[in-house]
Structure formats: C-alpha cells, structure tokens
Amino acid sequence: MARVFSGMQPTGNLHLGNYLGALKRFIPLQEEAESFFCVVDLHALTVPRDPEDLRKKTVELAALYVAAGLDPEKATLFAQSHNPHHAEAGWLLQCVTRMGELSRMTQFKDKSQGSDSVTAGLFTYPALMAGDILLYQADEVPVGEDQKQHLELARDLAERFNRQYGETFTIPEPRIGETGARIMGLDNPEKKMSKSAASEANFIGLLEDEKSIVKKFKRAVTDSENDIRYDPEKKPGVSNLLSIMSVITGKPVQTLTEEYQGKGYGHLKVDTAEVVIQELKPIQERFRELTQTGEIEEVLAKGAEKARAASEKTMARMKEVMGLIPGR
Ligand code: TYM
Fold first, then answer.
1. Rounded Cα gap, residues 133 and 140, in angstroms
2. Catalytic (active-site) positions
3. Is the pTM of this model over 0.90?
4. Options 3.30.1300.30, 3.40.710.10, 3.40.50.2000, 3.40.50.620; which CATH number does 3-180+294-322 get?
5. Residues that bind ATP, according to the entry (predicted)?
6. Ligand 1: does its nearest atom lie under 6 Å from the Cβ of 127?
C-alpha cells in the first residue's frame, strides 16, 4: 500500500487556499493509502510565536483535520514535536544539505525579505521538512503549488543520501492538484492567498462566518471586462473564483464557464460565496463540537505513538549508515 505524508503549520488562520490546495485533498487519500497527517509545530517556531497561541493553534489544527473528514482510525494524525525523530532526522539531513540549495528557496527569500531577525531555523526549514517526509518512506506528498520547490529539495536530498550512504529512502512524489493548487488572494489575485497577508480581505478563514464570507467575495477584485472566462494570466480574479467553485463542486472549469455565459461577475461572486459557505458549514459545526470535548488531545496522543513506531526503523537506519553508534 502506498504511503502518504503531508503537514500543515499551526499558524495564523487556516484559509480556503490551505483547504482546497491540501486538506480537502487529504480526505480521499486516507481510504487508498497508509497516510500520515502532521501538525508541524516545530516548523511554526521558525518565526517568533506566542507560546500560548501556538499551543491553542496546534490543537485547533488537529481538530480541523478531523472536522474536515480525516478519521483518526484510518489516518495517523499527530503533532510533529510528539515524535522526536523529526528533529533528529532534520539535523542529520541538514548535514547533507548545501547552503546554496537553501539560499535558492523562494519561500525563504520571501519570508526573510525586509526582516533583520531571520532565524537559522527559517533557513534550514526545508531540511526538517524533508525529514518529515523521508522518515515515513512516503511515496506521495499532497501539497499546494507553493511547496513544490521544497518537495524537489526533499527528493534531491533523498537521492543524495541514498547515493552517499546506501539505499535508505523512498523518493517521494509531490501530488499537486490540477485545480486549486494555488488559490489567489481575494483582494489581490496576482498573489496567492496567504495566512500572513496584511489585509483580512485577502483570505477566507475556514472558521469564518457566513456574513463575512459573502462580504469578502462581493468585494473580491476582478477586472474591468464583463465576460466570465478562465484565463489566469489576463483574468486572475475571475479565474480564481472559477477554480474555487470547480474544486468544491467537482465541475470542470470549462463546464462552469459555459454555465456562466452571459451572466455578470456579481452572479459568480454570490454563487461562489454560497458554495463555500455550504462546504464550510459542516466543518465549522464539527470543529465546535470537537474543541469542547477534549478528544483531540487523545487523538494526538494515539497518533504520536503510531507515528513513532512507523518512523523508528528509518531513523535507526539513518543513524547507523551515517556512523553513529547505537545507544543502550
Ligand atoms: P503551510 O502550512 O504553509 O500550508 C499548508 C498547505 O496548504 C497549501 N497552501 C495552498 N494551496 C493552495 N492555495 C494557496 N493559496 C495555498 N497556501 C497554502 C500548502 O501548499 C500546503 O500544502 N512547509 C509546509 C508544511 C510542511 C509539510 C511538510 C508539507 C512541513 N513539513 C511535509 C508536506 C510535507 C507549509 O508551510 O505549509
């Protein structure tokens, strides 16, 4: 059976981009593969965080995993810091990663730009991410488009490690959706929807209420024409709405374009808002129930045990082939 691994950071507001590009796509995979979905709390530490808020967001993200449809009986759901192999493997992989490779990461360039307090962790972040994936011998990694470069580095590191120390890792394949892998900001469809966007008008939070969702879609930036066409270059705003609608309804963009022939942008915006509201409603209800019961901590505890057991062999192999003597 194929193995799947993916992770999300417990930071900011989880938004529609995270959901459509990643989380929603995790759900069917739990049926067909042995899957591991991680709340990457160690990655969250690469920029300063309020400790109390990080704890809260970690449990909330795990609750969102379950609320969105991940079943802890089928998939392993856990917090990265609960399996110490991640930090260990992250270090060992840093020792096969080159500075030049890390310097070329666009996410590092974007996140460090204009900041005078960039941490070493932000720089070495992709080595930790590679460790996350390789520890589980994952065959596939479902992610949004913005993680593609990190995934390529993980593959390069796995290949280099295998060459240098002997066959150790499966080479993981990125699994990036055809539609929805890059949901754009509603206030600026030239840039991806982002947790760290300056304006709230940029994103739809997964826990956002109906009124606010309608308002943001109505104000979504489009263009000065009036025909509904899918053309991400020339019509990024309209194309973004069509992508969102397509991923949720399962209708191809082409079909939607035909359905909206002759209709105005206003119509498309209101309908997209409605589709999003209906998609998020059951998730929000389930989320509220879950966060009241304390059962998520239980889910994470069981998940951590399964994760540790699953990564143990690879961890031991990494240490051995690199020349570390076994402890007693
Ligand atoms: P993170 O937490 O930034 O994002 C979580 C997932 O959401 C996807 N995503 C998007 N998809 C479509 N449109 C968008 N606008 C959008 N914004 C974000 C991301 O591609 C991602 O799949 N480094 C990772 C977390 C990570 C990880 C891993 C992922 C750590 N270890 C191992 C996979 C495997 C990150 O920061 O994702």
1. 9
2. 111, 192, 195
3. yes
4. 3.40.50.620
5. 9-11, 17-18, 144-146, 183, 192-196
6. no
